[in-house]
Amino acid sequence: MTESPTEARLKFLEEAEAFKAEFERRLTPIEHLSPRNPAVFVSVGGGELGDLALTAAKRMFGGLNGGVRTVVFDRYEGFPAQDVADAYEVFDMLNGDRLEEAIRRHIPDPNEPHAIYLEIERVDTLRVCKLGIEAGYRVASTPYGPLICMDRHMTKLMFDKLGLPRVEWAYASSPEEVKKAARDFNLPVIIKPIMTSSGHGTTIAQTWSEVEAAYDYAVKHARGKGSEVVVERFLPQLKKEGTEVTQLVVRHFNTEGKIVTSFFPLVEHQRPGATYHESWLPASLPEEAVRKCRESAGKIAEFIGGLGIFAVEQFYVEGKVYNNEVANRPHDTGMITRWMLNLDEGAAQLLSSLGLPILEGDLEYARKGVYGVAHVILAPGREDQSYREAPVKFWGLWEVKRFMEAKGYRGDLWYFGKPAAYPGRRMGLAVAFHEDLAEARKRAEEIAHHAEAKIFYG
Ligand SMILES: Nc1ncnc2c1ncn2[C@@H]1O[C@H](COP(=O)(O)OP(=O)(O)O)[C@@H](O)[C@H]1O
Ligand SMILES: [Mg+2]
User: Fold this and answer.
1) 203 in ligand 1 pocket by Cβ < 6 Å?
2) Does pTM surpass 0.90?
3) For 251, which of 64, 214, 404, 423 is 20 to 30 Å away at the CA?
4) Atom of ligand 1 nearest to the CA of 313
5) In terms of residue numbers, what domain contains 176?
């Protein structure tokens, strides 16, 4: 008898657990940073999240002379983290041979200090993780972590294994199985490919005809194993009266050389659609809910183990916390940490994954008594419109700053410096600080919309 997809994934989780123990025994802190033998930090993907980690190496250590050599890959010339890295390469990171060759070239000996950060999902994750499992490369957090987190089915099985709260869900690999799950849960349901991000291939089915169409749609848009989906009970109250949060957790060495788990303050976010739109610190959830969010995230981090950041996405609705998905890396909603905490999530990923210490106070608020809200600055047009890329001609920093000044808005602007845009592309972040959350959200949105009108393409 062949094993079912569920059995295979449960077995994989067991393997991951066994591997973790062995992997952690091999992890050692870096005691000395030396320009003669620098630790190598490879970011596979160099968007804004890669940029946050790489600039931290420059800010905190002066880069190479401070003992950290940064390397970054992405698929196009002119990507945000390119110019801050000590070395960069442009190629298709879904090409496993090319990716492995580049990693091995920059880290010839996996016994030398290094860390590999998978910044995005659109890379040959399996190939990189195999390098970790078979050749001893230090993929953050463990070589199994990114594989568990990129697979919704495996993530849900992990939640259940750990007894964590989550929405009701079912695995399906045919239209009949989708229909059966929808009957069990009642409409509405949400149908998601096993491997996707940004809502690609996902359907919220309100009617039975939508359930019928959802499976084909998911299969058409899926990445990787296209015939598998997850069906979930849809929580209609989430967008109306609930809220979403990301519990960032970091596994790192403490000053005694022990691996420990530390928690960031809970980040709250809301979104009109499926993708990141605005996030803030501190979150407005009651204490009991915050405690539950932490408890779940802590169990996940300890189960997967290793060194690095875990971003656990959670829903809070009608007094309940549901775990949704996990990214084994920094998270777009967490970019607000850059303005609000002593250490941002990019710096924390760099330090923790390399085996450098993080102190308790590092994750405390640097800015107190205000809410800090980050709002995306998007290129015009909707993401699903036909793909037309336009180069950036210029952008009006002065005009945005004058607007902020005239309005008396305290805040900031992070322009990512992407050379071109397609409809809906994330070009930057607008940030506002205010004692009142609603006011801070309004201001961040106003700055963002003002900035959007000041980027000129063509
Ligand atoms: N079961 C659900 N009930 C209500 N809303 C949901 C549910 N699942 C997802 N969503 C909404 O869709 C968004 C994207 O879903 P998610 O599972 O996080 O996929 P992605 O990989 O695209 O981020 C969530 O942030 C949330 O707003
Ligand atoms: Mg998500």
Assistant:
1) no
2) yes
3) 64
4) 18
5) 168-234
